Amino acid sequence: METANQTPKILNGGLTEEQVAVFKKQHRKSFAVEVQDGDEVHIGYFKRPTFDTIKAVTKVAKTDEVEAGKVMFDNCWLGGSEELRTDALLFMAVQKQLGTVLNSFNGLIKNL
């Protein structure tokens, strides 16, 4: 029987803190996406997309948004819970967060 205070099981593909630290050093910006599924928390580690990745995602998105999500996922994936890749609902939760990364920047125009 579950209790309200039960600690969730963390699934991150067996990556260590040291390996995650390497991601931070190798890539200018990297981030973790956490998706809770019942008593499990699946964690995936991603890097920022390159221009080539954004170009590919934009091209594929015109005909298949789910496939475009796979392109983004595969090109930014550093490691983590493989279930994020194989479980459709977990995958879609990750896609929502990756979309947030793409759309979370604001620019400002200033007159000189």
What do these coordinates show?
The protein has a domain at 9-48 and 77-102. Strands 1, 2, 3 and 4 form a four-stranded mixed β-sheet that branches. With 112 residues, it is an alpha+beta fold. The protein contains five helices and four strands; from the N terminus they run βαββααβαα.
The residue fraction in helices comes out at 40-55%
Helices and strands, in order, run as EHEEHHEHH
Give the mean pLDDT: 90
Which range does the strand content fall in? 15-25%
The class by helix and strand makeup works out as alpha+beta
* Low-confidence region ranges: none
Find the count of extended strands (DSSP E, 2+ residues): 4
Q: Count of helical segments?
A: 5
Give the CA-based shape: globular
The gyration radius over C-alpha positions equals 16 Å
Query: What distance lies between the first and last C-alpha atoms, to the nearest angstrom?
Result: 65 Å
**Biggest β-sheet strands, sense, barrel:** 4 strands, mixed
